[in-house]
Amino acid sequence: MEDRVKKVMSDVFNIDIKSINDGSSPDNIENWDSLKHMNLIIALEEELEIEFSDEEIGDSMNYALIVNILNSK
Fold it and tell me: CA 46, CA 25: separation in Å to the nearest integer?
């Protein structure tokens, strides 16, 4: 699943998949803004056939947190 998350992040943010790590966040991904964040959430929901709660959407602000949320589903 982690590879799928990285692939989606790479596609949404138009960055090299190899540059994504646990610390990848809006602080170090230049084009991760609120609109791209929602695009990421929608793309992950479609790719993984899951649904994020409003709280999870707000909490998913870096790669490691996203993986933790997904592992809890």
Answer: 21
